[in-house]
């Protein structure tokens, strides 16, 4: 059974930091492209950052220089380090796995207050 379980969300003041984790199981994590998406109220889900099986990364312009995506294949875990958070980063953050199939986590809420 495939599972993507996000954790690390919460409430923080502007300028603060959070580290999201996504624990994966039930598929070959190391061979999948992994990504973080987010969805703010009333907006479409958008890609935040992604990382290939080989470790190449890409990220949205809005988070460049502030967010860092990484993965630990030995632990089957995906991370998102978020620094210098702003209220515009408030959203539900989803873990995504893309390979032979596509999987989604249930999401974790991040709320940034000014």
Task: Outline the structure in words.
The chain has no helices and eleven strands. The model has no long low-confidence stretch (mean pLDDT 97). With 114 residues, it is mostly beta strands. A hairpin with a 4-residue loop joins strand 7 and strand 8 (77-82). It is 0% helix and 54% strand. The strands form two sheets. Strands 2, 4, 5, 6, 9, 10 and 11 form a seven-stranded mixed beta sheet that branches. The protein has a four-stranded antiparallel beta sheet with strand order 1-3-8-7, with no helix packed on it.
List the helices and strands and how they pair.
Blueprint: E1 3-7, E2 10-13, E3 18-25, E4 33-39, E5 46-51, E6 57-59, E7 67-72, E8 77-82, E9 91-98, E10 102-104, E11 108-113
Parallel strand pairs: 2-11
Antiparallel strand pairs: 1-3, 3-8, 4-5, 4-9, 5-6, 7-8, 9-10, 9-11
List keywords for this structure.
114 residues, mainly beta, seven-stranded mixed sheet, four-stranded antiparallel sheet, 11 strands
Question: What's the short story on this structure?
Answer:
The protein is an all-beta fold. 0% of the residues lie in helices and 54% in strands. Strands 2, 4, 5, 6, 9, 10 and 11 form a 7-stranded mixed sheet that branches. It has a 4-stranded antiparallel sheet with strand order 1-3-8-7, with no helix packed on it.
